[in-house]
Design goal:
33% of the residues lie in helices and 26% in strands. It is of the alpha+beta class. Strands 3-2-1-6-5-4 form a 6-stranded antiparallel beta sheet, with helices on both faces. β2 and β3 form a beta hairpin. The protein starts with 11 loop residues before the first helix and ends in a 6-residue tail after the last helix. InterPro entries: GAF (IPR003018), GAF-like_dom_sf (IPR029016), Phosphatase_reg/MetRdx (IPR051330). This is GAF domain-containing protein. It holds the Pfam family GAF_2.
Length: 159
């Protein structure tokens, strides 16, 4: 596939249904994990214009910043700290309508207002998280959760 995206306007479901096969086409057959994670976040950023989207990968006892799109970010996050560390500890997707009301929120940027973090689980273990931030309150919902979980379940982390 050419490295061009077809960006769709309209409702959120239509946008996801358009971008998912494009992400699949970008990543299928490419064995390099970093390349696939980088193209995934770039495609999501282009389609949705979120404030920040990126991966954190588990390395020993921390989440370590992986490929992302947006302003500079926190490099390392301990298990149980902030939204990302809490998602890792709970092995659960967290949707946070107002990050300022989340106990222990780590403010990498004061412009971030809401967040969704999805754990990447392989072989029963969390190996990373997908973190998405918006500069708008209450930006994420179950539709985002459903489609973002579909996207991360399709990525190959066996690199």
């Amino acid at each position: 596939m050419a490295e061009d995206l077809s960006i769709v306007q309209g409702d959120k479901t239509a946008q996801y249904q358009s971008i998912i096969p494009q992400i699949k086409a970008l990543t299928d057959g490419e064995p390099d994990l970093v390349a696939n994670l980088a193209n995934t976040v770039a495609a999501l950023k282009e389609q949705f214009n979120w404030f920040w989207v990126g991966f954190y990968l588990v390395k020993k006892d921390e989440l370590v910043l992986g490929p992302f799109q947006g302003p500079v970010a926190c490099t390392r996050i301990k298990k149980g700290r902030g939204v990302c560390g809490s998602s890792w500890a709970q092995a659960a997707t967290l949707i946070v309508p107002d990050v300022e009301k989340f106990p222990g929120h780590i403010a990498c940027s004061s412009l971030s207002k809401s967040e969704i973090v999805l754990p990447i689980i392989r072989h029963g273990e969390v190996i990373g998280v997908l973190d998405v931030d918006s500069e708008h309150l209450s930006h994420f919902d179950e539709t985002d959760q459903q489609y973002l979980e579909e996207i991360i379940s399709g990525l190959n982390f066996e690199d």
